[in-house]
Every structure is written in structure tokens, then in C-alpha cells.
Design brief:
Layout: H1 3-23, E1 55-57, E2 68-70, E3 76-79, E4 84-93, E5 96-106, E6 111-116, E7 122-126, E8 130-134, E9 140-144, E10 146-147, E11 150-151, E12 155-160, E13 166-170, H2 180-186, E14 191-197, E15 202-210, E16 213-218, E17 224-229, E18 234-239, E19 248-252, E20 257-264, E21 270-277, H3 280-285, H4 289-295, E22 310-315, E23 321-327, E24 336-342, E25 345-350, E26 356-359
Antiparallel strand pairs: 1-26, 2-3, 3-4, 4-5, 6-7, 7-8, 8-9, 10-11, 12-13, 13-14, 14-15, 16-17, 17-18, 18-19, 20-21, 21-22, 22-23, 24-25, 25-26
Length: 361
């Protein structure tokens, strides 16, 4: 082969490869999005080390306790990556505290949001199985899997009103669990806020076209419910009572990170767990659909990486930040997904660690 032929081959093959890559179909059809400038981490948002005091419970005995719930005996429940719901019993001893970790139930999916209803059933938002109810013996009942003839693809979080109605989210009707980054890059509103009535068995869509509908929580007087829109850095409010009933507005906007879980202590405080702080590389990428389309074809290791940063916010019922808890190093508490206040203690969940967090006053 001549030198010219070898040169042509060396140039032609990479060019052909690039052409094939560019013409290959992408798994997403992204939209352009121009994020607002992130708020400065100053004042009430200023970094601190409060989350570094978190105690780790059941460390090494479970994987990915995304949300946490406690029963009336103080036992801790969490859903794990392998489809189990584990129960942790803490027993004081002369030498400290013993931990008993056991499997309470197995859903076969990915249990995320957890809450006990008034009858002692554990209500579960399972990403793959829908909205479930588990009785004290561990027997599972499927409550609902679709609304308006559209199946849930990513049942995510929930809260339960005093009348027994369940408010919950379907993060994305297109992308299921494990595809949350595709939903992030696509930047289209696929999420819904829903309400299940256990008396009638009906499921109602309250809001649609949400950008990754995630955490759900009711206000102290249950006159509104909030839902996190993770990929818009905001929390949306849906009014349940009063002159604005049936309408929605923005409860908190331009948050310093990705809001994941939200809970209410029913005393005027919402605890918001942020998975991580904002990502400059991702925000530079968002306005460019073509670049996002090409990136979606590439291995995950080249995608923008989340910073290991622990962050939880306390908001009042007007949406104002009243306190922030940080672990800037991410060494003790990285990437929180839920924060639940029980008896003045804050229990923290996470997506892929092997412990449950507890922060005492």
C-alpha cells in the first residue's frame, strides 16, 4: 500500500467513525434550557459543618435508603436498591445501642418514598411498582399504577393527609428509575403530582408538565401541598383550600441545588434535602440541545458529575429559607435524598450509601 493510501486510510477511518457517531440516533430529544444564575451561598445559605455531626445508623447493613419512616414504636423503615424494605430496631444496652436490621417486606421494585397511614400501613411510592400499601405483617397491596390512562414510570414520593388521601409524585412518565440523568438532559416536563383516594380507589392528576416531580409534602393546616421540581431547582405549590384552591404557584425558586425529598414537620417547617449543589458544567451545557444529544450517546463516565456535598434546607410555610445544614466536604453526609423530622430528630436518606443518617438537636 502506498504512503498516500495509508494516509487516506488513517484520515478516512476516524472521519467515518465520527460521521457514524453523529448520525446515530440519540436516546433523548433534548430541549434548550437557560438556568438562572445560582444564588450565592451567603447569609442563611452560608456553608457550615452541621451535617458532619450526623450519626450513621445500620451502617453496612443496607444499600440506598432513599427515604425513611418511623412507626409508633420508633422502629426505622427504609427502602433499598434491591427492592427490600428493611426495619431497623435500636435497643439501648449497658454498652450503648444494639441495631437489629431485618427485612420487613420485598416489593421487587425500587421503593422510594415511605409514610405510615392512620391505620398503621406503610404506604410506599415504588419507582417500578406504583403506589403500594404494606400491612404490619408485610403483606403488599397495589393501590394504583396509572392515572388518565398513562402508567406511572417513576413513582417517587408521597405524603398523607389527615383524611387519608395520599398525595404522590410520578417523577417522569417517560424515563424510569435509573434513567433520571436522561430526563435531566432532555429538560422536558414529564412529571406529575397526583392524589389517591383510598375510599373510592380513584387516582387524580393535580398537576402535570413538571420537571422531574420529586418530593411531596403537605402544609401544617393541609391547605396546600408542595412538590419538588428537581431539574428546575424549585418547589411548586398546589392549593387545596381557600380562594386559590385548584391553582398552583412557585413556592420556592432558584434553589442552590437539586431539591430531592421534602417533608413537613406539621409545625410550620419544610425540610428540603438537596441531592447536591448546582453544577456549572451542566448549566453551560443546558442551552445547547445538539450538544446534549451527542453527550447522551457517550458513556456515563464522561457526563457531568455531581459534587459530593451534603445540603439540607429548612423553609417556612411562605417558602423562605430559615436555616441551612451543610457538609461541604461530603465526607460525612454526601448527596441527601430525604430529611424527616421525628420527635425533634432529623433522619436523612440517601440514594446509594449504606447507612441512615440521624441528626440530634
Amino acid at each position: 500500500m502506498s504512503k498516500h493510501s495509508k494516509l487516506g486510510l488513517c484520515v478516512g477511518l476516524p472521519t467515518l467513525g465520527l460521521l457514524v457517531f453523529l448520525l446515530a440516533p440519540a436516546p433523548i430529544a433534548p430541549a434548550a434550557y437557560s438556568p438562572p444564575k445560582p444564588p450565592a451561598l451567603t447569609g442563611l445559605l452560608a456553608p457550615n459543618q452541621e451535617l458532619q455531626a450526623v450519626e450513621r445508623i445500620a451502617e453496612g447493613s443496607l444499600h440506598g435508603p432513599e427515604d425513611v419512616a418511623l412507626d409508633d414504636q420508633g422502629r426505622i423503615y427504609a427502602g433499598t436498591h434491591d427492592g427490600h424494605i428493611v426495619r431497623v430496631t435500636l435497643s439501648p444496652t449497658a454498652g450503648g445501642v444494639t441495631e437489629q436490621v431485618e427485612t420487613f417486606a420485598t416489593t421487587g421494585g425500587r421503593p422510594l418514598g415511605l409514610h405510615f397511614d392512620g391505620g398503621g400501613r406503610l404506604i410506599v411510592a415504588d419507582a417500578a411498582k406504583g403506589l403500594l400499601a404494606i400491612d404490619p405483617a408485610g403483606q403488599i397491596e397495589t393501590l394504583t399504577t396509572q392515572a388518565d390512562d398513562l402508567p406511572f414510570a417513576f413513582t417517587d414520593d408521597l405524603d398523607i393527609a389527615s383524611d387519608g388521601k395520599i398525595y404522590f409524585s410520578d417523577a417522569s412518565w417517560r424515563f424510569g428509575y435509573g434513567q433520571h440523568l436522561e430526563d435531566l438532559l432532555e429538560a422536558k416536563p414529564r412529571g406529575r403530582l397526583l392524589r389517591y383516594d383510598p375510599v373510592t380507589g380513584s387516582t387524580e392528576v393535580l398537576l402535570k408538565d413538571l420537571y422531574f416531580a420529586n418530593g411531596v409534602a403537605l402544609s401544617s393546616s393541609e391547605d396546600f401541598v408542595v412538590v419538588n421540581e428537581t431539574y428546575r431547582y424549585r418547589i411548586t405549590r398546589y392549593w387545596l383550600a381557600g380562594p386559590l384552591a385548584g391553582t398552583s404557584d412557585i413556592f420556592a425558586d432558584n434553589l442552590p441545588g437539586f431539591p430531592d425529598g421534602v417533608s413537613s414537620n406539621r409545625q410550620g417547617t419544610f425540610w428540603v434535602a438537596l441531592y447536591t449543589v448546582r453544577n456549572p458544567a451542566l448549566e453551560r451545557l443546558h442551552p445547547h440541545p445538539w450538544l446534549k444529544r451527542q453527550l447522551s450517546k457517550m458513556p456515563r463516565w464522561v457526563w457531568p458529575k455531581p459534587q459530593s456535598y451534603g445540603l439540607v434546607l429548612a423553609l417556612d410555610e411562605n417558602g423562605a429559607v430559615r436555616r441551612s445544614l451543610h457538609d461541604p466536604t461530603g465526607e460525612r453526609v454526601p448527596q441527601t435524598t430525604s430529611a424527616e423530622e421525628v420527635n425533634g430528630e432529623l433522619y436523612l436518606g440517601n440514594l446509594d450509601r449504606n447507612w441512615i443518617g440521624r441528626l440530634r438537636p
